[in-house]
């Protein structure tokens, strides 16, 4: 069984003053993102500890509307121990919840809004239904971050303007794919569940085209047969891209 102090040491961000977006996903050994249609079918108590710790370390938790519906999310609320840790370390008692949605199909009465400890954000674009925008504006700050579609970099900029620099994205695969295509992912926290699934379940990232991005393995935690991996952007790849862009 993992201990929180060890998990904290492995997943702490080196400099919280710099914007940082981390993805957190779980996968079977053969690449399935779900078991029985839900990601929760693949996890255990050790993965849950990492999941909760990543939330505790974050300024804002980002989630796609489809994943919220599929996984049955309620209000984002940390327990008392996590709140005490955050306050002791100069953080807000609770992270902000930010929902990414194009159609805005969730009612204002949904628990993720109605029971939220902090006023949530809804991140959408200028073509989202105006009536739905007005309804959700009564329970959340609705922010337009794109023309016709959500722009990952405009989204990140909107969060940064609110002082929400440490971003944790919990899904889903299409949101991950969109951020990957925009080269807007700084980190992937990936749990490898020791099962083979087969079937037709999707991957953790889905996008219209291949967008290779070299990552650097930052840490590995082993909990029995489960592996908890932390990957960061490869600085050598970033440096090569910068040299190519500047001709140096």
Structure description:
With 248 residues, the chain is of the alpha/beta class. It has one domain (18-195, 213-246): 3-Layer(aba) Sandwich (Dihydrofolate Reductase, subunit A). Helices cover 32% and strands 22% of the residues. It has nine helices and nine strands. The chain has helices spanning 4-11, 45-57, 65-71, 80-88, 111-114, 130-136, 152-161, 173-181, 235-246; strands at residues 20-28, 60-64, 96-100, 121-124, 141-144, 166-169, 187-193, 215-223, 226-233. Strands 5-4-3-2-6-1-7-9-8 form a nine-stranded mixed beta sheet, sandwiched between helices. The longest helix is centred in the N-terminal third of the chain and has 13 residues, at 45-57. The chain is globular and about 50 Å long. The N and C termini lie far apart (49 Å). The relative contact order is 0.19. Residues 240-248 have low confidence and may be disordered.
Spatial sequence of strands, sheet with the most strands = 5-4-3-2-6-1-7-9-8
DSSP strand count: 9
Percent of residues in beta strands: 15-25%
What name goes with the CATH superfamily? Dihydrofolate Reductase, subunit A
- State the share of residues found in helices, binned by percent: 25-40%
Topology as a string of helices (H) and strands (E) = HEHEHHEHEHEHEHEEEH
Let me know the average pLDDT: 92
Oligomer: single chain
Return the structural class. Answer: alpha/beta
CATH architecture: 3-Layer(aba) Sandwich
- Rg, alpha carbons: 18 Å
What CATH calls the topology is: Dihydrofolate Reductase, subunit A
Q: Rough shape?
A: globular
Biggest β-sheet, characterized? 9 strands, mixed
Name of the CATH class? Alpha Beta
């Amino acid at each position: 069984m993992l201990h929180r102090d060890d998990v904290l040491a492995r997943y702490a961000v080196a400099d919280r003053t710099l914007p940082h977006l981390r993805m957190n996903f779980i996968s079977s050994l053969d690449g399935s993102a779900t078991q029985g249609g839900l990601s929760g079918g693949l996890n255990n108590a050790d993965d849950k500890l990492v999941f909760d710790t990543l939330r505790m370390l974050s300024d804002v938790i980002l989630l796609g509307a489809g994943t919220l519906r599929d996984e049955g999310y309620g209000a984002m609320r940390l327990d008392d121990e996590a709140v005490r840790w955050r306050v002791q370390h100069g953080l807000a008692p609770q992270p902000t919840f930010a929902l990414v949605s194009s159609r805005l199909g969730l009612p204002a009465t949904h628990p993720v809004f109605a029971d939220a400890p902090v006023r949530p954000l809804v991140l959408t674009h200028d073509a989202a239904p105006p009536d739905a925008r007005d309804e959700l504006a009564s329970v959340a700050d609705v922010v337009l971050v794109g023309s016709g579609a959500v722009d990952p970099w405009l989204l990140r900029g909107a969060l940064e303007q609110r002082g929400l620099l440490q971003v944790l994205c919990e899904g889903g695969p299409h949101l991950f794919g969109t951020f990957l295509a925009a080269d807007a992912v700084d980190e992937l926290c990936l749990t490898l569940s020791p099962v083979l699934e087969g079937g037709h379940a999707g991957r953790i990232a889905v996008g219209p085209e291949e967008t290779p991005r070299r990552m650097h393995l930052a840490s590995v935690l082993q909990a029995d047969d489960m592996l908890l991996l932390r990957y960061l952007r490869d600085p050598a790849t970033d440096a090569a891209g910068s040299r190519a862009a500047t001709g140096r």
